[in-house]
C-alpha cells in the first residue's frame, strides 16, 4: 500500500524535468523523486514563513506618528528632531525614509520611542545596529545605580519588521509596541 | 560570531580547539567540527541555520542523484534543477528586494515588499556548493557519499562567512586524511594573529577616516577626497585579506590547507594582474564556471568582448544587490578590454613603477564605485577628486586627516607589499623566539584595540 502511494506520487512527478531523474518503475529512483519534492516543499514553506514574518504594510510615518500619539501616551514625551537622532543614534535623518522620535525631557529618564523607516534592507540592518548600540550605551550609563531605569531597559524592545526599525522603552513599552505592530 | 571578537577568540576558539585536539577519532572530530560550525553560525542568526542545513542536505542529495544517474539527459536536467534552486535561494535573499525596487523606480510607483536580512555568507556557501555540483556533473570529482564528510566541507566555519570559496576538489583528500599537529597549529595561529592585526589595528582605524570624510556635510577639498579613497583602498585590502589570513590560519589549526585568496594585489602592474591577485577564489570561480563555458577567448572577438562584460557584470552583482556594484563590475570589464585590445603595447613599454601607479589609480577610482551606493554621491566624490565641485585643493581638514592618518597610511602601505612577510619568515627561521615575541605583541595590541573599540564586522561578510 505504502509502496504504491510512493510510486504513484513519483509517477505523477515524472513530467517535471529534474525532479524524477530515473526510471519511475524502480522504487529506489521513485523515492529520490519524493525526497526532492519534499525538500522543495520544505523550502517553499520555510521561505514563505520568513517572508510573512518579515512582511510589513507600507504605512507612512505621518500615519504612524498620528496613531501612536492618539492611541498611546507617547505624546507625554518630548518630540525630538534630527540633531537628537544624530546625537543618540548616529543616524543621519536624510538617509532614512522617515522617523518618529520621542524622548523624555529629563536625562534621568529612559522613556523613549524611536521608529525609523529604512530605504532598503542594508540600511534597516544599519539602523538596527544603531538602536542596539544605543540600548547598550543606556545600560552602561545607568548600570550600577539606576535600578528603576535598568529594570525598564531590560524590558525594552529593539527590533525590525520590514523596513521599520524600532526602539521602545518605558513603563508602557508593551502597549506602544502592540499599537505600532498593529499598524504595520 | 566574527573572528575579530573577544567572544570568538577567548571563549569559542579555545573550547573548540581543546575538544578537537583531545579527541583522537576523526569521525568524532568531524562531528565536533560540524556542530561547532553550526553553533558559530547560529550565534548571530539562529533562523538562518535552517537555511544552511537545507542547502547542505539538498546539495548533498542532488550531487548523489546526478552522480548515480546513467542517463546524460536526465543528469543534465537534474544539474540544471539544482543550480536553479541554489540561485533562486540566493536571489530570494539577495536580489529580490533589489529587483522590485528597480522596477518600482522604473514605473515610478512604490512596491511594498518585506525586507529580509541577508544570511551571512550566503554568496560564499552558495558558490562553494555550486562548484561542487558542477564538478560532480562534469565528473571532475566523485559525489561524496558520506553525509558527515560532506557536512564538514559544506559548513566548516573558517571559510563559511566570507570565503575563500574553497573548492571540494582542493580539500577532498584532506576531508579523509589531514595533518593535525602542534607545528601546524602554531603556523595557523601565526596567520590568524597576522590577519587579526591587519583587521583591528589597521583596517578598522582606516575605516574611521574614510567614513568621516564621506559623511562630511558639504564640499570637500581635492586632497581630502584622495586621502579618503586612499584610506578605503588600504582598508578594504587589509580587512578582506585579514579575514582570509584568519580563515586560512584557522584551517591550518584544524589540519586543512586552503589556497591563498590574495597575493599582494597592490603591487600589480596591470588591471589584469590585479585580478589575478585579488580575491583569487572568486576570480577563478567565474573563470571556470562562467567565462570558459561561455567560450572564453576561443571565440570571435565580439563574443570574447561579450563574455568579458557578462563575467564582470556578474562579478559586480555578486558583491551586492545594488547598481553601484554592477557599475563597478562593468568598469573593470571595460578596463580589461582596453588593456587587452588597445593599451597592451603602450603599457608594456612603460617602467614598472609607472604601470603600478596607473593600475593603482584605476583601482582607487574603482573603489569609489564600490564604496558609495548612490550614483549622485559617486560622481560628486569623483568630481571632488579631480577638482570639480571641490571646496579647495587643500584645506585645514585635509591637513588634519593627513596628520592623524599618516602613521596608518605608511604602515598600511608597507603591509600591502611582500617585504614584511619575507622578513618575518626569515626571522622565524633565524630567530624563532623573536618571531614568537613579535606575534605575542601583535596579538596583545590587537586585543587591546578589540576591547577599546566597538563591534566592526568584516566588509565582505555583507556579501
Structure, explained:
The complex is a heterodimer of chains A (184) and B (463). With 184 residues, chain A is an alpha+beta fold. Chain A has helices at residues 2-12, 27-54, 61-71, 82-89, 121-142, 147-154, 173-183, and strands at residues 78-79, 98-103, 112-117, 157-161, 164-169. Chain B folds into two domains: 6-177, no CATH class; 184-462, no CATH class. Chain B has helices spanning 6-22, 26-42, 49-68, 72-94, 96-107, 122-137, 147-155, 168-176, 182-214, 222-253, 271-277, 280-291, 301-319, 323-341, 344-348, 352-371, 375-385, 396-415, 419-430, 432-452. In chain B, helix 1 (6-22) packs antiparallel against helix 2, helix 3 packs antiparallel against helix 4 (72-94) and helix 9 (182-214) packs antiparallel against helix 18. Chain A binds chain B through residues 17-19, 21-22, 32, 35-36, 39-40, 42-43, 46-47, 50-52, 54-58, 92, 118, 120-122, 124-125, 129, 133, 160, 162-163, and chain B through 47, 50-51, 54, 57-58, 61-62, 65-66, 69, 71, 74-75, 77-78, 80-82, 85, 89, 92, 97-98, 101, 110, 112-118, 215, 320, 454-455, 462.
What's a quick, concise take on this entry?
The complex is a heterodimer of chains A (184) and B (463). By secondary structure, chain A is of the alpha+beta class. Chain A has seven helices and five strands.
SSE topology:
The complex is a heterodimer of chains A (184) and B (463).
Chain A: H1 2-12, H2 27-54, H3 61-71, E1 78-79, H4 82-89, E2 98-103, E3 112-117, H5 121-142, H6 147-154, E4 157-161, E5 164-169, H7 173-183
Antiparallel strand pairs in A: 1-2, 2-3, 3-5, 4-5
Helix pairs in contact in A: 1-2, 3-7, 5-6
Chain B: H1 6-22, H2 26-42, H3 49-68, H4 72-94, H5 96-107, H6 122-137, H7 147-155, H8 168-176, H9 182-214, H10 222-253, H11 271-277, H12 280-291, H13 301-319, H14 323-341, H15 344-348, H16 352-371, H17 375-385, H18 396-415, H19 419-430, H20 432-452
Helix pairs in contact in B: 1-2, 2-7, 3-4, 3-6, 3-7, 4-6, 9-10, 9-18, 9-20, 10-16, 10-17, 10-18, 12-13, 13-14, 14-16, 19-20
Amino acid at each position: 500500500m505504502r509502496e504504491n502511494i510512493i510510486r504513484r506520487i513519483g509517477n505523477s512527478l515524472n513530467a517535471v524535468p529534474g525532479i524524477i531523474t530515473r526510471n519511475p518503475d524502480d522504487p529506489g529512483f521513485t523515492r529520490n523523486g519524493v525526497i526532492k519534492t519534499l525538500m522543495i516543499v520544505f523550502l517553499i514553506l520555510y521561505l514563505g514563513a520568513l517572508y510573512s514574518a518579515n512582511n510589513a504594510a507600507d504605512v507612512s510615518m505621518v500615519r504612524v506618528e498620528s496613531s501612536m500619539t492618539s492611541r498611546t501616551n507617547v505624546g507625554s514625551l518630548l518630540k525630538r528632531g534630527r540633531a537628537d537622532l544624530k546625537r543618540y543614534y548616529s543616524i543621519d535623518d536624510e538617509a532614512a525614509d522617515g522617523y518618529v522620535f520621542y524622548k523624555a525631557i529629563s536625562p534621568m529618564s529612559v522613556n523613549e520611542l524611536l521608529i525609523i523607516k529604512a530605504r532598503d534592507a542594508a540600511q534597516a540592518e544599519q539602523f538596527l545596529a544603531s538602536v542596539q548600540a544605543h540600548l547598550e550605551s543606556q545600560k552602561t550609563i545607568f548600570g550600577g545605580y539606576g535600578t528603576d531605569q535598568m529594570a525598564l531597559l531590560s524590558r525594552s524592545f529593539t527590533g525590525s519588521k520590514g523596513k521599520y526599525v524600532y526602539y521602545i522603552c518605558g513603563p508602557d513599552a508593551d502597549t506602544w509596541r502592540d499599537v505600532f505592530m498593529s499598524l504595520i | 560570531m566574527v573572528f575579530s571578537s573577544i567572544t570568538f577568540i577567548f571563549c569559542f576558539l579555545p573550547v573548540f580547539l581543546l575538544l578537537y585536539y583531545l579527541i583522537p577519532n576523526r569521525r568524532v572530530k568531524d562531528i565536533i567540527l560540524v556542530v561547532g560550525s553550526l553553533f558559530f553560525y547560529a550565534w548571530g542568526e539562529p533562523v538562518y541555520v535552517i537555511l544552511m542545513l537545507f542547502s547542505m542536505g539538498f546539495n548533498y542529495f542532488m550531487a548523489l542523484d546526478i552522480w548515480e544517474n546513467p542517463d546524460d539527459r536526465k543528469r543534465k536536467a537534474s544539474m540544471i534543477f539544482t543550480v536553479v534552486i541554489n540561485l533562486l535561494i540566493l536571489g530570494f535573499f539577495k536580489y529580490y528586494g533589489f529587483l522590485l525596487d528597480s522596477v518600482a523606480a522604473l514605473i515610478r510607483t512604490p512596491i511594498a515588499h518585506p525586507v529580509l536580512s541577508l544570511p551571512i555568507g550566503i554568496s560564499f556557501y552558495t558558490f562553494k556548493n555550486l562548484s561542487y555540483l558542477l564538478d560532480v556533473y562534469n565528473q571532475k570529482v566523485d559525489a561524496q557519499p558520506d553525509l558527515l564528510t560532506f557536512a564538514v566541507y559544506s559548513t566548516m566555519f573558517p571559510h563559511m562567512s566570507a570565503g575563500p570559496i574553497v573548492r571540494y576538489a582542493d580539500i577532498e583528500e584532506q576531508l579523509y586524511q589531514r595533518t593535525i599537529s602542534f607545528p601546524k597549529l602554531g603556523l595557523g595561529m601565526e596567520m590568524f594573529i597576522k590577519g587579526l592585526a591587519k583587521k583591528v589595528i589597521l583596517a578598522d582605524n582606516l575605516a574611521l577616516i574614510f567614513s568621516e570624510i564621506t559623511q562630511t556635510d558639504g564640499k570637500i577639498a581635492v586632497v581630502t577626497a584622495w586621502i579618503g579613497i586612499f584610506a578605503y583602498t588600504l582598508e578594504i585590502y587589509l580587512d578582506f585579506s585579514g579575514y582570509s589570513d584568519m580563515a586560512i590560519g584557522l584551517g591550518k589549526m584544524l589540519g586543512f590547507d586552503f589556497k591563498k585568496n590574495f597575493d599582494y594585489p597592490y603591487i600589480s602592474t596591470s588591471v589584469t594582474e590585479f585580478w589575478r591577485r585579488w580575491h583569487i577564489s572568486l576570480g577563478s570561480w567565474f573563470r571556470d564556471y562562467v567565462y570558459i563555458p561561455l567560450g572564453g577567448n576561443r571565440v570571435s572577438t565580439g563574443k570574447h568582448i561579450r563574455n568579458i562584460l557578462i563575467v564582470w557584470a556578474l562579478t559586480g552583482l555578486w558583491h551586492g544587490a545594488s547598481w553601484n556594484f554592477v557599475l563597478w563590475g562593468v568598469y573593470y570589464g571595460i578596463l580589461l578590454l582596453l588593456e587587452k585590445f588597445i593599451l597592451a603595447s603602450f603599457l608594456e613599454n612603460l617602467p614598472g613603477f609607472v604601470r603600478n601607479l596607473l593600475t593603482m589609480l584605476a583601482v582607487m577610482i574603482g573603489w569609489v564605485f564600490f564604496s558609495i551606493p548612490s550614483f549622485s554621491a559617486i560622481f560628486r566624490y569623483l568630481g571632488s577628486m579631480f577638482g570639480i565641485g571641490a571646496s579647495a585643493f587643500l584645506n585645514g581638514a585635509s591637513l588634519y586627516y593627513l596628520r592623524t592618518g599618516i602613521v596608518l597610511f605608511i604602515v598600511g602601505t608597507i603591509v600591502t607589499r611582500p617585504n614584511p612577510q619575507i622578513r618575518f619568515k626569515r626571522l622565524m627561521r633565524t630567530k624563532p623566539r623573536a618571531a614568537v615575541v613579535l606575534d605575542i605583541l601583535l596579538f596583545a595590541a590587537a586585543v587591546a584595540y578589540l576591547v577599546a573599540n566597538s563591534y566592526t564586522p568584516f566588509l565582505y561578510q555583507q556579501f
